[in-house]
Amino acid sequence: LILNTKNLLHIEDGAFRNLPRLKYLSICNTGIRKFPDLTQIFSLEAHFILELCDNLRMTIIPQNAFQGMNNESLTLKLYKNGFEDIHSHAFNGTKLNQLILKDNKNLRRIHNDALRGATGPDVLDISSTALESLPSYGLEAIQVLNATSSYSLKRLPPLDKFSSLLEAVLTYPSHCCAFRNLKTEKQNLLLSIFDNFSKECESTMRKPTNEMLDDSNSTLLWSAERNTYPFATDDEGSPYSYSTIFDDSEMAGFDFEYDFCQPKVLTCTPEPDAFNPCEDILGYSFLRVLIWFINILAIAGNFTVLLVLLTSHYKLTVPRFLMCNLSFADFCMGLYLLLIASVDAQTSGQYYNHAIDWQTGSGCSTAGFFTVFASELSVYTLTVITVERWHTITYAMQLDRKLRLRHAVPIMLGGWLFSIGIAVLPLFGVSSYMKVSICLPMDIETGLSQAYILLILVLNVVAFVVICACYIKIYIAVQNPELVAANKDTKVAKRMAILIFTDFTCMAPISFFAISAAFKVPLITVTNSKILLVLFYPVNSCANPFLYAIFTKAFRRDFFLLMSKLGCCKSRAEFYRMNYFSAYNSNCKNGGTATVPSKASQAFLLLSALEK
After folding, report:
1. Which of 62, 115, 205, 270 could form a Cys-Cys staple with 232, CB 3.0–4.6 A?
2. Under a CB-based contact definition with an 8 Å cutoff, are residues 354 and 347 in contact?
3. Which domains does the chain have, with CATH numbers?
4. Is the whole-model pTM more than 0.90?
5. Among candidates 497, 498, 492, 536, which has minimal Cα distance to 514?
6. What stretches of 469-593 adopt beta strand conformation (E)?
């Protein structure tokens, strides 16, 4: 034992020479800078233990560092040192039983060939190290892997390298998903022997012979309660034993639990939780196809609307300004879906190896910011658009009360600041985007996080109620049969119903299940919630550009005028241009100025123009 000698800075080569009876060597808490020469010990003991600990000035383990120590079983306890790097062939020429490297806080690299030339180890402990990867060679013999608190180890080597692994204690639950369906060679062998052994026992115990009664004191605890075969007993009721069925040589090398050969199954902790099940980001194969269709539709539709509205030579009105904001919000939602779909495609089948990098990295935070910002800005803008339409119809005869651009700009500025603020909070610890693979703020562990989620959901529900109320008032205002034809009234009602239905389809399922989850009474799993994410969550982002812009006559006019500038659709552009000036001249002839239409007529014109 060489312990607590801080002034010991160096051990000469050959200091440990020809020590055949040495069983245990401990060098701890010294000032040694260079790894000592241990290659001339030549111990003849069946098992040798080397302990190096608290030697903070030793930074590397060189090549052949342990060769010649012992030709039999070797346990290396190399913990709490200053190791930063383990070189190639460091363990060459050893028969490793246990390799303990825990608590080497600065250990960042084990060379891929560090274990080349070595047999084993059976047990590898790299807990509380800074390792970013494991060596690709020499893992085949490992039966127990301990990697707790190894936060830098975010990826595992190919799973076929762990051919003998029976127990893994890791840092991240997602890594255990890698081992869930892994069948090791030893497992397969034990399962095969277990199956053959079961059949042999069954057939033998059905027809016991006198030769099987040699050892009636042993018991065979193999019962129906264990989902196995009934007890086998002799005439006096004593159970038969294994030794009466198989020779000792046939049973050698197998573990016995409850007096029976039980095959070992690979165990891994920590197990995946409800928020991070063992699956890819999207979970279902059909969602992987649908999300591409939906995000392309959302991006293309909203980009087209933005392009047409921003390049139009017509005056920027309040409806156009609001529509630009809505299209931008929905465009951001499309970007979120595109980001999720892209990462899912890249990590499909191996998400367990990318989960930590994705969920704790900037990618997931960016995706989460996009979706919360887009969702809240979209809901806010939809509410403003609906209120603006109701206000325009209600005060159609009072032009001095008309909402103008100077009023709309600060209103939308407030919406932008609100949406950005809500989206930024999870980046500062109020809930978190890292909780789930789809990067939504589902963390409700603290009261503040729970209040944050509930605030968002309640505001969305209030916005939906306001939208419904305004559309009902609009419908009441325009349904006067004396001023609006019945068929036009029906069209107005249908258009309103479509808008309310799309809003309800988007908000209702998400809000219902999210509110229940916020109160810690989840009614749906994360796996099933991904269906809502793809099929319901982006409904508005896909539908809004069509319902509020693309299907309207004003948009079609602007679109064809834009295309005519590019040399396409000139005849259609001229048609819309003539219709516009014809309508304008017709109004001017009536008293020299445009007349103010009746309330119902103006309401219908507004609804028709914006496809309400």
Report:
1. 205
2. yes
3. 1-197+264-272 (3.80.10.10), 285-563 (1.20.1070.10)
4. no
5. 536
6. none
